Amino acid sequence: MSINIPAKLLIEIHTSGETAYPEEGAGLMLGYEQNGVRYIQSLLKLENAREDSARYNRYLITAEDMLQGELEADRLGLSIVGIFHSHPDHPNIPSENDREWAIPWYSYLITSIQAGQALESKSWRLADDRSHFIPEKVIINSNI
Q: DSSP label at 128?
């Protein structure tokens, strides 16, 4: 299991997380899967819909956001393959809240933002039994 992401899109994800800091930022990753590799082709950055008091350690993507993502993915001939979000001043490891709300099929790219600066992103997939996350290799493609 791995995701292949263009360096320019990873920079956009990092910038999105830095802009949202000290709150969590989030969005959708659009792409396709081939031979067990997810190829990220486009991003849909979203506003964190969580109530103000919880945005520093939670994000919310609404049903309307998902519909917008599906429509944009269809327009581009792609699918929603994952969700990206930031962890302000915390490691890029899924939280228990992340596990409770995750969907097994998606990739979850989490970026650690420390003191307003993006440090590193890691990707995860939720196990089918929803008990834990499985690390996913991130391949940064500088040729796209």
A: T
Q: What is the CATH number of the domain that holds 131?
A: 3.40.140.10
Residue 141 parent element (H or E): strand 133-141
Q: DSSP code of 54?
A: G
Structure-block tokens of residue 37: 């590799």
Q: How many domains does the chain have?
A: 1
pLDDT digits (tens, 9 = 90+) for 54-110: 777 788 899 999 999 999 999 999 999 999 999 999 999 999 999 999 998 999 999
Closest CA to 109 of 121, 120, 99: 121
CA angle 111, 116, 118 (to 5 degrees): 30
CB half-sphere exposure, 61, CA atoms < 13 A: 22
- Per the structure, the complete domain to which residue 51 belongs is given by 2-141
Beta bridge partner(s), residue 43: 29
